[in-house]
């Protein structure tokens, strides 16, 4: 394929890394950007950017013009798949997209109620070649969702008990996505993307303490205390419930599985938590 690769969620944790990797590979990548004022800078130059809104089909023609591959993600605020995601999949199928790489969720095959499962089903029915990137929990949740607690209180405020997580660095997801979008052999495959180690939050706090040079605690709040704090911060109730569900499954040991797919696809081990904390140290300074 020789057309443009359209990248949705291009200002987000993963989309920005997909874009960076595609530009580094010399691929013709186009950033589909919700707020054009936030248009991302690609490595080695400014990526072509176009306004795009999943909920506004009038933005589709300019975004898809000349594109033959799509990196598809579901913004966390979108839960109505039929109304807000199906139109873009239908449009892609009718307008020259030959391969869709979807940012999905690990364990989705056992969890038919999550939006990602519904999107995977639509992709299977779309007639377009697909690849599912079923990701574990991102390291970058620490420098986004949990950043305020880390910087203001030197604390990881997560109700996950002693449960372990095989955290993945979003940069590894970007590297995998760029390969899958530009190399043959990945159509109709689903990959499980995790890091190479499963850590408890106590262990993450110890790594952060060593790398940031100040004590970081893991306070393991009750689900109620967690919900209260995030509601106070303005998180919608639905999103807080999703987070509580994620941390409950972590507590139950369901986030600890390690997959070999990242190492196999990239030919190197996944980025470790220690490396992530080192690379993001400036973000965690007070
Ligand atoms: N966090 C995790 O640990 C984890 C693990 C596995 C899977 N996932 C899945 O990964 C996805 C989130 O990826 P992410 O963390 O890279 O995203 P993110 O950082 O939350 O960014 C969301 C992106 O979507 C854009 N956006 C929001 N509303 C839009 C709309 N109506 N139309 C077009 N674009 C819109 C945002 O643009 P603006 O910046 O302009 O608002 C932003 O670029 C979710 O589906 C989540 O379930 C997450």
Automatic annotation (TrEMBL):
Residues 2-222 form the NmrA-like domain. InterPro entries: Ergot_Alk_Oxidoreductase, NAD(P)-bd_dom_sf, NmrA-like. This is NmrA family protein. It comes from Candidatus Promineifilum breve. The lineage of its organism: Bacteria, Bacillati, Chloroflexota, Ardenticatenia, Candidatus Promineifilales.
């Amino acid at each position: 394929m020789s057309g443009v690769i359209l990248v949705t969620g291009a200002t987000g944790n993963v989309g920005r890394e997909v874009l960076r990797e595609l530009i580094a590979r010399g691929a013709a990548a186009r950033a589909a950007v919700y707020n054009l004022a936030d248009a991302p800078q690609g490595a080695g130059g400014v990526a072509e950017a176009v306004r795009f809104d999943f909920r506004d089909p009038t933005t589709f023609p300019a975004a898809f013009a000349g594109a033959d591959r799509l990196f598809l993600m579901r913004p966390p605020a979108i839960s109505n798949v039929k109304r807000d995601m199906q139109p873009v999949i239908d449009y892609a199928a009718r307008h020259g997209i030959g391969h869709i790489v979807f940012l999905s969720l690990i364990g989705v095959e056992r969890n038919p109620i999550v939006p990602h499962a519904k999107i995977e089903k639509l992709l299977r029915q779309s007639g377009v070649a697909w690849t599912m990137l079923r990701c574990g929990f991102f390291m970058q949740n620490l420098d986004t969702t949990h950043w305020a607690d880390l910087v203001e209180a030197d604390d990881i405020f997560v109700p996950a008990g002693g449960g372990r997580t095989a955290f993945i660095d979003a940069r590894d997801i970007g590297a995998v996505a760029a390969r899958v979008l530009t190399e043959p052999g990945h159509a109709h495959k689903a990959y499980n993307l995790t890091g190479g180690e499963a850590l408890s939050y106590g262990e993450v706090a110890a790594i952060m303490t060593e790398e940031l040079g100040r004590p970081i605690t893991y306070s393991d709040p009750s689900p109620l205390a967690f919900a209260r704090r995030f509601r106070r911060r303005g998180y919608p109730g639905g999103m807080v419930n999703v987070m509580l569900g994620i941390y409950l499954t972590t507590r139950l040991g369901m986030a600890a599985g390690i997959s070999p797919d990242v190492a196999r696809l990239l030919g190197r081990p996944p980025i470790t938590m220690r490396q992530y904390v080192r690379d993001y140290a400036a973000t965690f300074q007070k």
